[in-house]
Write a structure and sequence with these properties.
0% strand
Length: 137
């Protein structure tokens, strides 16, 4: 069995996780970048106790600019995870370095919900498999 076949599972899981983060970040970026509502379709129904002085983050987290910036961070993390997974497949002898890159940027993608947490979890799992991989002599 060659070294390239040994990292296939971590490559596939990391690639799927990175693609999930990438796709959902693009969807969120398109949604919030268009100036859409951040109240989830409830309109002013859910404002209640979280409005006015009771809103602990003020107007900062209710702006679409904040969510757009968070989506951009998650998008960059998704691109880096996909790139690292592809390089892991091409250069399996560097599995430790690319496993670290995959784990770090998958964890950073939690900032933008990491593909609704599924993509980030897949990325972390794939990166951990790349880190623990031991080639056969």
């Amino acid at each position: 069995m060659s070294t390239r076949q040994g990292v296939t599972l971590s490559y596939v899981i990391s690639l799927v996780g990175g693609l999930i983060v990438l796709v959902f970040s693009l969807v969120n970026l398109a949604y919030f970048g268009s100036g859409a509502s951040t109240s989830g379709g409830f309109g002013s129904y859910m404002r209640g106790a979280m409005d006015g002085y009771h809103n602990f983050m003020g107007s900062y987290a209710s702006s679409t600019g904040f969510f757009t910036a968070v989506s951009v961070v998650s998008l960059v993390c998704g691109v880096i995870v996909v790139f690292a997974a592809l390089v892991l497949r091409v250069h399996p002898q560097e599995h430790v370095m690319w496993g670290i890159v995959i784990v770090v940027f998958s964890a950073l993608s939690f900032v933008g919900m990491g593909g609704y947490f599924v993509g980030a979890a897949f990325g972390i799992l794939g990166g951990a498999l790349a880190l623990t991989y031991k080639p056969m002599p």
